Amino acid sequence: MTPPPETLRLTTAQAIIRWLSNQFIDIDGEEYRLCGGGFGIFGHGNVTCLGEALYQAQEALPLYRGQNEQSMGFAAAGYAKQWLRQRFMFCTASAGPGTSNLLTSAALAHANRLPMLMLCGDAFLTRLPDPVLQQMENFGDPTFGVNDAFKPVSRYWDRITHPAQVIQSLPAAVATMLDPGDCGPAFLGLPQDVQGWTYDYPAVFFEKKVHRIRRTTPDAAEIDDAVALLRSAQRPMIIAGGGVQYSRAVQELTKFAEDHQIPVVETIAGRANLTNDHPLNIGPIGVTGSDSANAIAAQADVILAVGTRLQDFTTGSWTAFAQDARFISVNAARHDAGKHRALPVVGDAKCAIRALAANLGDYRTPENWIQLAREERRKWSAYVAENVSYGDNRPNSYAQAIGVVNALCDPRDRIVAAAGGLPAEVTANWRTLSPGTVDVEFGFSCMGYEIAGAWGARIAQCEQEPGNDTIVFVGDGSYMLMNSDIYSSVLSQKKLIVLVLDNGGFAVINKLQNNTGNASFNNLLSDCPTIPDPFGVDFAAHAQAMGAETETVANPTELAAAFQRAQACERTSVIVMRVDAYEGWTTEGHAWWEVGTPHITDDKNVEAAHLDWEEGRNRQRRGV
């Protein structure tokens, strides 16, 4: 007789953690634990069972104590970005508000196609104690709760209703997170009673498994169609997106562009695919882009988009291109490859570029097109050099702070910024020193990501390149939204250099408000009628109270000296500089962007701005 299979009696929570501990990934011939650990805040919904399991596994899966569940999710996203989606972190939160705080970060991970595992408390499956603390009751459907809100922002969602279920659910969740086309957050709802229930699991379920991220080979016919279209091009252009880095295809894309002399522009997520001084790097494209990239985009006849979902800031709400321009879209995700009647090439970027190169032969871009692109880039580079310079009593600006750091940082330091005015300023003015070193979170354009995302990136960076720094650009508005991971970085000894650039409120939205003819209202502190006596926050004192080394500087010259001191310091450093809310913005390089404007108004300035915006709409590609 065949002996019965060996089993292990474990709780559901113990089984989840033991299985995660035995998952590994092969990265360039080296094995790493697939899950780098987790971020956790305990409450009654996860401390007694999942907490017990994590305590036993703390060496294999280190648990970083978070200060806020939303920022934990941002940190997990920053970690995944630094590891190019090859490794992930889990986040564990209690039932109710602890879990619902993760919704925004789940949406960020979903929009950016980032792996993140959420292990969240849920109401009791038996319902015997209902209604329980923090349970959101639905009168007509008792199975429907707060955790169901994660379905739209998760690539994989499940509620564990029996211990045996994890045998299927865990591999399915990991498969989703590692799939290049479907990559995104996975959510597992863990009812509080089920977490502690036991089951005799087959021992083979916990055997070591080494994962590899698949590279999907594009269809030969799609490659042939793409090659034929490229061969017809007189003014081709490559849009390099974030997917180029996730595919680890930077070298292949660079060589392809060099061999065929095709100019390259970058998306926000694709920033730092090419170094600043590469002769084919024509600059960032779109609403927060460069005159150089937008100038050639307007004339390009064939556009090879690699690893980008072509969001509106890249396309200028689809006004940045000629009406008859043709697109080839290389993307691992079918959903992204077929947008706007693009000729789709569904597959891995590295494989696709190699296939295109093998079939394109001796095609080279006409010399006059390359010369035009390089001349446009030369003019843009001169503008940036002037824009980041300081002196002559010019007002302090974001661009100047960016220029100071750019001149002093190590080429492999990581730069992190997010929503607000800084994404545009970093995208336009940062001169890339090394590929893959810039993280501007604009997939979900989420204020508050900066410091938390940098903390997660720093954890990953310490696993890879511990000698380099993680540098954060954050405005005062984002700082006030979420700053507690300064404390996290100090506690965990994961050094950050944080530049707080204070312009007295939400200045970039005030700028948009003014640009659409509206009067300043409720954005700058000085323009809030419910604030009778506005005053500035002492950001340095606040950050110092969280354990950081801090300085407040008056100008870019002082900022440079303070930054060098921060580089030499072993502890998280926060440097504060006041910048002008109205002067010093990057004024060039902006493509048109569609925003809603009032069709009827008594304000003549708003009416004039509306008519001007409607005029811009005439250049919009209408789904073709």
TrEMBL record:
<dbReference type="Pfam" id="PF00205">
    <property type="entry name" value="TPP_enzyme_M"/>
</dbReference>
<feature type="domain" description="Thiamine pyrophosphate enzyme TPP-binding">
    <location>
        <begin position="429"/>
        <end position="576"/>
    </location>
</feature>
<keyword id="KW-0808">Transferase</keyword>
<protein>
    <submittedName>
        <fullName>3D-(3,5/4)-trihydroxycyclohexane-1,2-dione hydrolase</fullName>
        <ecNumber>3.7.1.-</ecNumber>
    </submittedName>
</protein>
<dbReference type="GO" id="GO:0009099">
    <property type="term" value="P:L-valine biosynthetic process"/>
</dbReference>
<keyword id="KW-0378">Hydrolase</keyword>
<keyword id="KW-0786">Thiamine pyrophosphate</keyword>
<dbReference type="GO" id="GO:0000287">
    <property type="term" value="F:magnesium ion binding"/>
</dbReference>
<dbReference type="GO" id="GO:0016823">
    <property type="term" value="F:hydrolase activity, acting on acid carbon-carbon bonds, in ketonic substances"/>
</dbReference>
<dbReference type="GO" id="GO:0009097">
    <property type="term" value="P:isoleucine biosynthetic process"/>
</dbReference>
<dbReference type="InterPro" id="IPR000399">
    <property type="entry name" value="TPP-bd_CS"/>
</dbReference>
<comment type="similarity">
    <text>Belongs to the TPP enzyme family.</text>
</comment>
<dbReference type="InterPro" id="IPR012000">
    <property type="entry name" value="Thiamin_PyroP_enz_cen_dom"/>
</dbReference>
<feature type="domain" description="Thiamine pyrophosphate enzyme central">
    <location>
        <begin position="223"/>
        <end position="356"/>
    </location>
</feature>
<dbReference type="InterPro" id="IPR029035">
    <property type="entry name" value="DHS-like_NAD/FAD-binding_dom"/>
</dbReference>
<dbReference type="GO" id="GO:0005948">
    <property type="term" value="C:acetolactate synthase complex"/>
</dbReference>
<dbReference type="Pfam" id="PF02776">
    <property type="entry name" value="TPP_enzyme_N"/>
</dbReference>
<feature type="domain" description="Thiamine pyrophosphate enzyme N-terminal TPP-binding">
    <location>
        <begin position="39"/>
        <end position="134"/>
    </location>
</feature>
<dbReference type="Pfam" id="PF02775">
    <property type="entry name" value="TPP_enzyme_C"/>
</dbReference>
<dbReference type="InterPro" id="IPR011766">
    <property type="entry name" value="TPP_enzyme_TPP-bd"/>
</dbReference>
<dbReference type="GO" id="GO:0019310">
    <property type="term" value="P:inositol catabolic process"/>
</dbReference>
<dbReference type="GO" id="GO:0030976">
    <property type="term" value="F:thiamine pyrophosphate binding"/>
</dbReference>
<dbReference type="InterPro" id="IPR029061">
    <property type="entry name" value="THDP-binding"/>
</dbReference>
<dbReference type="InterPro" id="IPR012001">
    <property type="entry name" value="Thiamin_PyroP_enz_TPP-bd_dom"/>
</dbReference>
<dbReference type="GO" id="GO:0003984">
    <property type="term" value="F:acetolactate synthase activity"/>
</dbReference>
<dbReference type="InterPro" id="IPR045229">
    <property type="entry name" value="TPP_enz"/>
</dbReference>
<dbReference type="GO" id="GO:0050660">
    <property type="term" value="F:flavin adenine dinucleotide binding"/>
</dbReference>
<dbReference type="InterPro" id="IPR030817">
    <property type="entry name" value="Myo_inos_IolD"/>
</dbReference>
